[in-house]
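ESCALATION

Customer reports they have been waiting on this structure for their group meeting. Please prioritize. Original submission:
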Amino acid sequence: MRNNSLRAVTLLLAAGAFVSVVPADAMAQRGGRTGGQGGAGQDAPAGPKPYAEVVTEDAQTRDGMFKVHRIDEKLLFEIPRNQLDRDILLVKEIAQTTLGIGYGGQAVGNDVFRFERRGNRLLLRGVSYEAVADPSRPEYLAVKNANVDPIISALDIAAFGPDSTMVVDVTRLFTSPPAELGPGARIPGNVDADRSWVERATPFVDNVNVYSTLTFAQAAGRGAAAPAGGRGGATNTNPSNTIVMSWSFHRLPDEPMMPRLCDNRVGYFSVRFTDYTDEGQQVKETCYITRYRLEKKNPNAAVSDPVEPIVYYLDHATPTRWIPYFIEAIESWQPAFEAAGFSNAIIGRVAPDDPDWSPEDARYSVVRWLPSTTENASGPHVHDPRSGEILNAHIQFYQNVQRLQLTWYFTQAAALDPRARKFPYPDDLMGKLLGYVMAHEVGHTLGFQHNMKASSMYPTDSLRNESFLRRMSHTPTLMDYSRFNYVVQPEDNIPVDLLIPQIGPYDKWATMWGYKPIPGAESSDDERATLDEWAREQDTKPYLRFSTSGSSGTDPGELTEAVGDYDAVKATRWGIANLERGMQWVLPATLKPTEGWDDLNNLYGRMIGQWRTELNHVNAIVGGYNSQEKYGSQTGVRFEPISRARQKEAVAFLNEQAFRTPEFFLDREILGRLSPGGEVARIVSAQAGLLNSLLSNARLIRMSEIAHGSPAGAYPVLELLADVRAGIFSELGSGADIDVYRRALQRAYVGLLDNRLNPPPPPAAAAGRGGRGGGVPALATELSDVYPAARAELSALGRAVEAAIPGATGMKRAHLEDLRHRIAASLKGEEEV
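Update from on-call: job pushed to the front of the queue and completed.
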């Protein structure tokens, strides 16, 4: 088998941006040049000058990967010959910014460049790693000819130094940067070079950091909204905006790390490229996982400290009281690395008090505390595109994630943890909650994707057992969105520290799979058999599984925000019981004598949102599949329809819990403080959302397909609709009154079926009969059973309504007559389409 480690292939640029370059002799004839300093053409230079005339006695010089000379406002790079034609990773960040334009610490992007000499100029070329070919094969030439590294800038060599170093003036690269080096669309307007300058440049052995103040002038009358992830909707209307931009040039390793091939059964981020080497009678897509390079100090030891540990620094903006919790969270990953054979592999530290230390420095992995109203955090990392080696990570920790933790923990744990019953939380609780967020984001920076699958492999009853929770946590992985253990009931007397996720068995196993050295393997292909053997451990330990490729939301075991989705009906029953208990503390938790009711309105809405979220986990059972990602070494299919019995049970539960009015939300002490009305719309909109999901086109189409392929266990679409109708319209047969909430829900049901029969007109660019919605193409819906099923259900409902009208009076009768009218209009409208 061909060795497909990076030592055996040459990576070439795929099609990308193109820059028109005029030959040097033509430019000389015209008396100009192309963007010598990133700007417009100007007079041709006389050629390199003596070194002392360029690097004068006034120069402030520092040595490093490049020598950096500062002469007044000019910035010169002195580039050694051994740095030509070498890959350099450029990491771009916004270090400081104007109010309403992002935030300091915002990542802009990272790209690979090379310096290349052409006569008396240095070309800065952009490099991509999207196409490869074996250089010993003839097709290599075709790939090379089809892909040219675009020229970003052409810099005149101002002087040659000792050992033929090349001195170039790079000032305008950083005061009027070309598009490839600038912040892009994140900052509106164009750079005004007269109000922009280089702040400082600091070289180190393996990198050079440059900071510039850039001022952007907008066109008259134009404003700009804050970019995504900015200050929570703050709008910037300034005619000018000033930022401090950071560029960190980082030398990529001389010898790329031996990559590890991806496996869909294990959830790592990846770097992908197309291999055009003519093998296997098809173009091959190659995928490597992203991971840090860890090497044992003692290669013969089962567990050894690494040569270089993974270190995360907390920036100086981090509030002091959260520092211990953040360091604890970072280092909570140490047991996972021990499973891979490394001790003390990951360390958290406070940033040093060193004037040359910078959080934007590409050598360091840093946690940035960001003053943002965004209720989130993110964990991006920078990796070597040749091998997937993670070089650094900058975790972005938005300050207002605290508000998210307040409401999340209340909705899921107020019935279990007395500390959650009053805002704000004590520091010992909020510190643990923020630590959980930190540990999750650290996982992303270590290379891990989200894994929603593993948690559904835990028996739901076990999540109420203290000994199980201490051994396994309530989710096998921190990389799930399985937040806090809302399945626990008060009578279980579970310690509150077990409500928050911990490093779990999947985290340890997946770290082992990605990071453990495989003795004797000299290439990525040599590792395949061992990696496959490790991955097949999922067959006997289902809680080690990862999401199934192609499942596209059809597996109820791959849902976000789910606890105990092994049996979602049971888990949701227990979760709703805790929501009902928690309602008694909604008002006390948010009551502030000197403030209004914003917190109450927010928390009350999130309680309803949590109710809807948990019920959607039950929705997913209907028309769903159980799945497991498998490779050719494993037997059996990847997708199996869920049994009819489980689907019927789910619909019965939805009729009981989702489509009956949740009276526990109708607290007059709360509603009377929020608004003079609107509670019906608030509740019924949540119910209608659940109903629309349950009866989505995609789900109904799947159910029809299952009925054909697995008729013995099928749950026919007409039976589903009849079961839902029996729950939502139960008053028709009993003669009971229909309250205002139920009337609204019944109208929503008729409206939903009308939308299936008479969908709104499609957008102008859409094709087919109407915008069918439901997440499937229009033609697929057009040819499906959705229309006959909706027509049959409306007809059956119409007969039931007609039969109930004679015995009804008052508003009930008015409501039923209105339903009769709506149903008739829907059926008539469908006939006219």
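Sent to customer with the following note: Residues 51 and 159 are 5 Å apart (CA to CA).
Escalation resolved.
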